[in-house]
Amino acid sequence: MERQKIGRRLSAYQPDYVVFDLETTGLSPVTDQIIELSAVKVKGGAVQETFSTLVNPGRPIPAAASRVNGITDAMVADAPALKAVWGQFLAFIGDETLVGHNIHSFDMKFLNAAMQKFHSRDLGNDYIDTLYMARSCMKHLPRHRLVDLAACFRISTEGAHRALNDCVMNRKCFEEMGKRMAAAGPGQSREPAAEVCPRCGGELVMRNGRYGPFYGCGNYPRCRYTRDPG
């Protein structure tokens, strides 16, 4: 039986990717539902096509969620259920690397919950979380929310917290951070990018072990690469 590919969190910029974003009824991938699903396909740093749909969660949207994203029960009343659009979303993203803000702790969990529900497996796409990227190359910022990055790069935040608008905003921020990472080097004022695992492409993280500090891959236990800090 072929072993299932499990997506890795990467840290280096790449020019071909799909940036995506979700809006949901709440914070739990176990008890909450997706109510908007959007993605933008990028090749060579340029937008190729977009995907966006509201989703009927089959339950009332809590008022707290509507206050954040502006999506109401009336707006999703005639929208398709997630099952009806899930195949279209998978076809859109294909095997591309996914990009999003805070997706490691949030959005990827909702995608994997849907994959488990409809296909009994996790999503295999590698992904780049721009929150980790921002913490690495934009250390001068006191906060690293998507709107903070956009403000730093003078990118419009109009329509923030709607999925497609956040995709457009994040793509521009990702491209700007990619330029900053490419320009970083000795003697320059920009912060260097996080060191990349040579085995899987993940981010190397400083850890403390039995024999002292060491660098380990952020994708542990899927990748067990380590090296001394020297």
Notes on the protein architecture:
It is a single chain. The chain has about 230 residues and is an alpha/beta fold. The protein is built from seven helices and nine strands. It has helices at about 65-70, 75, 80-95, 105-120, 130-135, 145-150, 165-185, and strands at about 10, 15-25, 35-45, 45-55, 100, 125-130, 205-210, 210-215, 225. The strands form two sheets. Strands 1-6-5-2-3-4 form a six-stranded mixed β-sheet, with helices on both faces. Strands 7-8-9 form a three-stranded antiparallel β-sheet, with no helix packed on it. A hairpin with a 2-residue loop joins β3 (about 35-45) and β4 (about 45-55). α6 (about 145-150) crosses α7 (about 165-185). The longest helix has 21 residues, at about 165-185. It is globular and about 60 Å long. About 35% of the residues are buried. The model is unreliable at about 185-195 (pLDDT under 50).
What is the element layout, followed by pairings?
Layout: E1 9-10, E2 17-24, E3 34-43, E4 46-54, H1 63-69, H2 73-76, H3 82-93, E5 98-100, H4 103-119, E6 127-129, H5 130-137, H6 146-152, H7 163-183, E7 204-209, E8 212-217, E9 226-227
Helix pairs in contact: 5-7, 6-7
